User: Fold these one by one.
Assistant:
Number 1:
Amino acid sequence: MSNTYKLSGNSEASAELPSYSGTLGPDVVDVRSLYAQQDVFTFDPGFASTASCKSEITFIDGKEGVLLYRGYPVEQLANNSTYIEVCYLLLYGELPTATQLSNFENDIRTHTMMNETMLRLFNGFHHDAHPMAMVSGVVGSMSAFYHETMDIQNPRHREIFSHRIIAKLPTIAAAAYKHSLGQPFVYPRNDLDYSSNLLNMFFSVPADDYEIDPIAVEAIDLLLILHADHEQNCSTSTVRLAGSSGTNPYSAIAAGIAALWGPAHGGANEAVLTMLGQIGNAKNITEYVAKAKDKNDSFRLMGFGHRVYKNFDPRATIIRDMCHKVLAKLGRDDDPLFELALELEQVALKDDYFVEKRLYPNVDFYSGIIYRALGFQPSMFTVMFAIARTVGWVSHWQEMITDPEHRIGRPRQLYTGPKTRDYVDVAKR
Ligand code: ACO
């Protein structure tokens, strides 16, 4: 279908633009010919009305609070699947057969170890370096280790890259954690499943026995599933944009990790804990809610609001239930921070400001409380998010590279700077 659009400001100007329908979600207007037809650009800072690509991976209906991975509701995957199975689904488009799953698990296991030289990179970081700084740096450095399998046009090279990075992210993250604590690095154990191995690398020490708690495994696997992908969010778009230049995929993923770190995105889980610590007590909630509503105050309720969800984030509901379960199993159901979070949620949900702006708890409102209960330091929360999202970034990068229509991402601008002017010698300025 194609429609004629009148351009305001010039009654004569119009453009004939095609529109397309996806399988779900709003139609899109194809503005690619607009510049050629009318010498105008579209203007959409923050890309709230822009579909930057076609994608078959993840669908979100923000009004209804729906999230689908390859068509499967995230609630069903959270209840029935494992993170590794979800990785297969996101990467290959279909749920695996038993044989495919077992082969995939095996492929991931055979890539969990880190090159010892890469391990030594951590010694270059100060002990109090933020783990996101270490993880993004070390992931970027992977391009210096695996250049023999980095032909991005070669499907097998892309597959090896995808297995390698999904397998190694927990190992790299655990190394960052151990470095910050000054503890010896713990090597991966390939007899363990993905989440158990992750916990073992983080929390075991050579001097003691470490028993992997099944509730911790269940909670980690769930959090990994819920964070695995989220269509064209900030970090995924960053990976696509960086990757669109043809750069090697490790560099593109490192760019995604850097984008994830910000408090408006994946850094929110750490920021929620900091905020709950600042609020400190239920009697201060009103004061902080007032600060969040004050236009002259930069304070925001971290873990609230979302660009796409204008209803409950379906992931937040699942995580809140898991939070209850984990705290109860660990005998910490009277955790004051959890109680504070529940109360803050109730106050905000009844407040006109949050109701009118449709600001609901997002995925990160409760995830930090679970991570904290399991023993992770707040600075590791966003790293956990990065581990989970790696498969989403890789799936989108693969989709982009294999899309015959893909071009280098190169937006334009509305220039508002000075018009052409002549250089003035320094003595005359
Ligand atoms: N607290 C108080 N007010 C808020 C909040 C909040 N958490 N979130 C949005 N608002 C207000 C804004 O002030 C704005 O008000 P206005 O219309 O009067 O100017 C309105 O709601 C819309 O907010 P925007 O910032 O324009 O919305 P946007 O879609 O650009 O931002 C974002 C979404 C970044 C998530 C925002 O809601 C926010 O900063 N939330 C807190 C940080 C957070 O939890 N981030 C994690 C997001 S989930 C994820 O990435 C994993």
Number 2:
Amino acid sequence: MCGIVGYTGKQKAAPFILEGLKRLEYRGYDSAGVAVQEKGGLKLAKKTGRVANLEQEAAKHRLTGTCGIGHTRWATHGGVTDANAHPHVSSDGQIAVVHNGVIENFDSIKKFLLGKGFTFRSETDTEALGNLIAYHYAKEPAANGESRLLNSVRKTLRHVEGTYGIVVLSIDSPGELVCARRGSPLILGLGEGENLVASDVSAIVSRTQSVVYLKDGELARLTPVDFAISTVNEGEIEPVIDQITWSIDAADLGTHTHYMEKEIFEQPAALENAMRGRFSEDGSTAQFGGLNLTPAEFRQVDRFMFCACGTAWHACLVTEHLIERFARVPVEVDYASEFRYRNAPLHPHTLFFVISQSGETIDTLAALREAKRKGYRALAINNVVGSSIAREADGGIYQHVGPEIGVASTKAFTSQLLLGAMMALYIGRMRDMSFSDGLNYVQALKGAPDLVRRVLTQAGHIKAVAARYAGYNDMLFLGRLSLFPIALEGALKLKEISYIHAAGYPAAEMKHGPIAMISERCPSVFFVTKGEMFSKVISSMQEVKARHGRIIAIATEGLELPAGLCDELITIPDCHEAVLPIVATIPVQLLSYYIALERGCDVDKPRNLAKSVTVE
Ligand code: M6R
């Protein structure tokens, strides 16, 4: 949520900052801005809309300075206006700041500062922060051997309640940036004769792969040749330097039109990466390196609790189904946003899990902290290496699918499904799953990438189906057992990128209410597969047909469906239950993508959304 970039070095700061902001645009795209230290003072360019608008605006300002900060915004306090765009400059013109997060006591800070003669131009909480830094800066001795800017930021943060990732510069401290984090990610990039800071590695990976992940409560001071980390209350601390293992190419569009398209088609490779090295030598179970639990400790667990938000919550639901089905251990699933407040009683031997692509979703992070506070061991399934959730969890499993840029989650979701299925296998094999069932299960999972490839070859057909359904305003998605969460996911995908109202239900629930929606104006997508649910799903489809509803069936290859029952047929290969949810997801991703394209929607940056939600 919101993107931050800062640069100090020998080269012009603005081109790098603008390039970085483009890479971060998926984090927020209401407005963007850049501030650069110039010989004559500070130069500032801000514009509502996309970074492309800012680029045009910045060109008018001839930004040549070598130290600057930039921001792309997802509005929280104050509307989408040029004035509310970041950076914000203090009313004395001394300090510029960019900020992610929410300053909860900004009202009282503002009242205090108004009394001291500071003025305000925006409706944002951030401006109060910038003015408070300027207030302390003015009182700070100019030359006592310490950084005046660092000291004033430190003093300011002692009075601030809420969450922040900030980068600050002062007009009379050339080449110096000060940053701090509490609740919003910041990563330092260490270069040759230049240092960088960003809210996401994708903005800096083109310049350096050496990074420091700032922790909550830490500040950093950057100059072109040096950096130092300290805390809000104390002196310097030893930094831990990490190396990013992927290159900038992984975050490029390549030959694709949209990131969402690229990420849908990357799924076979993403699944291969997620499972690599994670099967036992005898080929009958899964193995995970980072759980930080011995098999004996794992064996003691008699209940699991999974929490997440959005698409990742759907992955929890599928995982619940598979663990209960194959390992026969009870699983509970909750929305992270609810769990964090509802003080749920947890069974004593519960192992707590969160699932999060970004590892920064604030509700999921808070749920993890709540479980840990209660003394539970809390693990994470997470994609972004070094994220807050990855660092705070007691252990976990990285998804290893590379950067996911499209706001609508695709490859991260199917890899979460895969890892959930592997977790079910791991637990099942510790309990009653036989060696030969384990072997079959592993073979099935290894075959998943090829099955997904097969479904992807139907993209042309699904595109043609999409063209016939892009004009509808409502749609239902219906599935049973492990495909009920995929129905939810199909509905979410369609809603978020095409703005068609859609809802997912267990197919049999339809007759308890949603059936009232059915008419020739509300089509339904049904998942219909071989097995015990086949005839029951067919009955639900008949009920829709009887009410003139159109039906798109996503059905197992070779199934004999009653003649004339479905209007459209998309087939998926017959496969193991553990792989079915993965394979069944691909058609709904493609359907949503092509419908959104037909409707002229911006699929990678849907309205009102941001890739990772770091505010409540
Ligand atoms: O980064 P996370 O997995 O924690 O994100 C959770 C949700 O915000 C996310 O899945 C959201 O629902 C996506 N836009 C879905 O496509």
